[in-house]
Amino acid sequence: MKPIYLDHAATSPLHPKALEAMMPYFSEHFGNPSSIHSFGRRTRHALDEARLSLAQTIGAHPDELIFTSGGTEADNMAIIGYALKNKAKGTHIITTVIEHHAVLHTCKSLEEQGFEVTYLPVDEQGRVSLTDLKNHVREETILVSIMYGNNEVGAVQPIAEIGAFLKEQGIAFHTDAVQAYGTIPLDVEELSVQFLSVSAHKINGPKGTGFLYAKKGYDLKPQLFGGEQERKRRAGTENVASIVGFAEAAKIAMEDVQEKRQRYFQFREQMIGIFQEEGLDFSVNGHVSDVLPHVLNISFKGVNVESLLVNLDLAGIAVSSGSACTAGSFEPSHVLSAMFKDDEKAKSSVRFSFGYGNTIEDIEKVAKETVKIVKRITAL
């Protein structure tokens, strides 16, 4: 069987058209976009065009986009930058227990600097309660950071409802939209978010670039010091080639976003249907309907997930676990542990994530191979 990649939530292959768009900026168009001569003006024009194109994908003004090295830097910039800039207004931040570590570890860092952070719990479907959030907001609360869609189980949060409430309260709102961007239409005004993080390599763009949307009027304390790039908000020469590739990948992603969503939901139904037909004892983790279409997290009862992953890899199938293996020890992921009291369920979870290049035939092959491996493991 040909190798099949179903780990697009981890990273995605570079789209050929994105690579094609990037190539001239590795060779003839090499100028520094901050230079005033013709070489610099050429790359500055490309940078401006990419910024405009990317801003339009989320309904933002081009000046509100800050190019970063990816989602992690964008999260750090939003949370640390806004917290330090507005420390005089308050030192309380709210987030959730299932955030990406780029948010959780950033919040922990701020706690060491005197900030107080509230980590909201989630239900068994991975969703946060708006009522719970309202109950934890107080006078000193200056920022809330809640991810749009979870990278492990795909649960989508009620971002628009949360944004509307926080707007009334005058509290800044950041969402990590790294997994949602390109699969769900996003409009920053409709969502009432002031900060939004995106990464290129999740949408078939290059690794090492992303952006932070920062609404006009919401200032950040810079975390990098040097030149005056990105309107003095993020020093350092911009990665023009990658940003051009990012813009091209985003353009492609937005052109077929609805068709892509339907295709991925079809993949989900196909895989789940085969598992049901074969009589596997499994459960789907995450919300039934409010879910990222490309992420399918499943627990197989009685299955050691490490054995399952190894066997799938030997069969040429790349998927991942919602759990982390570190130095020989096996611990369930923080997301699944937050959702379930049953550690065994958390330890038997596998994430299938779909993307560019996958076909319905691929999904059928992976599902049937998974069935064979699960039955073999549970028969031992």
Automatic annotation (TrEMBL):
<dbReference type="Pfam" id="PF00266">
    <property type="entry name" value="Aminotran_5"/>
</dbReference>
<keyword id="KW-0408">Iron</keyword>
<feature type="domain" description="Aminotransferase class V">
    <location>
        <begin position="4"/>
        <end position="366"/>
    </location>
</feature>
<dbReference type="InterPro" id="IPR015421">
    <property type="entry name" value="PyrdxlP-dep_Trfase_major"/>
</dbReference>
<keyword id="KW-0808">Transferase</keyword>
<dbReference type="InterPro" id="IPR000192">
    <property type="entry name" value="Aminotrans_V_dom"/>
</dbReference>
<dbReference type="InterPro" id="IPR015424">
    <property type="entry name" value="PyrdxlP-dep_Trfase"/>
</dbReference>
<dbReference type="InterPro" id="IPR015422">
    <property type="entry name" value="PyrdxlP-dep_Trfase_small"/>
</dbReference>
<comment type="similarity">
    <text>Belongs to the class-V pyridoxal-phosphate-dependent aminotransferase family. NifS/IscS subfamily.</text>
</comment>
<keyword id="KW-0479">Metal-binding</keyword>
<keyword id="KW-0411">Iron-sulfur</keyword>
<protein>
    <submittedName>
        <fullName>Cysteine desulfurase</fullName>
    </submittedName>
</protein>
<dbReference type="InterPro" id="IPR016454">
    <property type="entry name" value="Cysteine_dSase"/>
</dbReference>
<keyword id="KW-0663">Pyridoxal phosphate</keyword>
